Amino acid sequence: MQTTAFASTGDPNIDNGGGDLQNGTSQNFWHPGDDGVRITVVDSETGAVKSTSIDYTNKKESDIRFHFGKVCKSEYVSGRTLSPSTSAYNYINPIEFMPTIISDGDNLVADIDKIRDYFTDEQVVKRIAEHTEIPFNELTNGDYKLMLEPVMYITYNGVKTAMTATEAALYNLKTGGDLLRKFAPLSHKNLPLAMFLEKDDLGYKAWTGSTTSRATDSDIIQYLGIGIVSFKEKEEDVEIKTSDYDYRTDTDVYTSVTVTGGEHNPDNPVTVKFYIKNKVYTVGNVVFPKGDSQLVWCKWHTPNTEQTVNIKVTATGGASVSNANISAKIVNLDENPPPDPQADDRNDSFRAVSVPSNPQKTSASWSVWEAYWKSDWEWKADWKWENNKWTDHGKWADNGDWEFQSKSYSVSLNANMDISPDTKNPTAAGNVMKSGYGINEKITASFSGNGEHTALQNAISYFPEFYYKTYWRLLESTSANVLEFRKNKYSTYNNRTHFSPVWYPDGNYKVYTWAIDCWTPAGMLSANLTDSVTIRGNVYDDWHIAPAN
């Protein structure tokens, strides 16, 4: 029998066997139903005893005159010898009636499913916690296990006696086989086969032998008459923290979420999936320590048209599945270019205004958890009864665990803006030009850091003649991390230019640009940029008027 209990419910791993019993005598007999279970709290890693053993039984066993105290199998396996006692035998009649533990081969049949259900029932485990004086939350937090041993109450040589399967085997060796001669079908078959492990645990091997035949003393001591209930703390649900996004059309972007909930190591990682426009982006092997979180992201390309993209996100970790939704608004910025400037445009009421400022973020940082195995080797004893003595067949075991370390990433954006008179301006001198001519603009970006990111993909320029609103120009990439004006359809030469108004007064002509769409897993980087040229005179100053011949 081996069980994993999750605080209030169990995942049983229990088996049993047995067969018909022979009739007893007036001095040596057993009444069907005279059974119980010895319960001991042990350390979940080492198997060391952590509580006084208690015996549960449905019967009133006040006439027990011979027993061996409250000693569990792990103590005997560690070398403790039998210590017969004639003192009062203590036991507990549990409020929750126990199922049959030992089959009699006739009317009373031990139902393994009922045994599994009983010892993983929340109320029963709470009762055990009370009787062993270990708080329930502590008992079930994964630090402890329950060791269960079937107990028989027999009349042996006229004396009512209590024995576990291990004690029966050890006592049979002490008496030269006397117990086997008088109680073999019970003491060496139905009792030890009432519980055994289906898989190895705490140094005890799973029983793979016969479940209907008599067992030897050695097999009973090593393998039989034992069940284990394991507890582990209830796994926290994985949670997804999200936010909505504003993106531009035709742009490389990152969409990120933060996952939390419990501990997730390489044995129990989280898998996050992003469902975007009929594609699934999967991020696996996400790990993080208990009480912490992890940023998770995917990179994708936005569509060419304005729309709202609904993104579904799922996070799966162990038995926990969480869902979230993100709304990504995709906008087209190339919809408000300045109108065609005219030679007779006027704005006599123009007054210069302050340059605006948009949200700016020139650096981003984030971290990624990594897990590595830290070994902790320990000798695991495996005592076996051989040649009338205990022999340790133990071996080294790695009791290590996963350790976590965080690796940091960062990206910094350095963006520069350069405004200059258009290359077709015939009278510009350095950065001085006449109004009515065009200007060129170039944004150059560079990056530092060790984190992944996109290029600087968009920049929006605003102009003083429109009070830095109403109209703007969307720059485009002309080479890696270099952006310039799009070609102006009003330009005679189809230049990448913006025409200053002919009416603009002498002085500083300052252009404001918001450089955006450098995306990282930790969000978008952006920069507020300005540069200017000096206006001195206007395009009419370059005209020469002379009389016709």
What is shown here, in short?
The chain has seven helices and 31 strands. It is mainly beta and 549 residues long. Strands 1, 2, 3, 4, 5, 6, 7 and 8 form an eight-stranded mixed sheet that branches. Strands 17, 22, 24, 27, 28 and 29 form a six-stranded antiparallel sheet that branches. A five-stranded mixed sheet has the order 10-16-15-12-13, with no helix packed on it.
Helix share bin: 10-25%
Q: Tell me about the largest β-sheet.
A: 8 strands, mixed
Computed over alpha carbons, the radius of gyration is 41 Å
Number of strands: 31
Which class best fits the helix and strand makeup? mainly beta
Instruction: Give the domain tally.
Output: 3
Rough outline: rod-shaped
Distance between the termini: 120 Å
Please state the average pLDDT score: 91
Low-confidence stretches: 5-16
Proportion of strand residues: 35-45%
Q: Give the helix tally.
A: 7
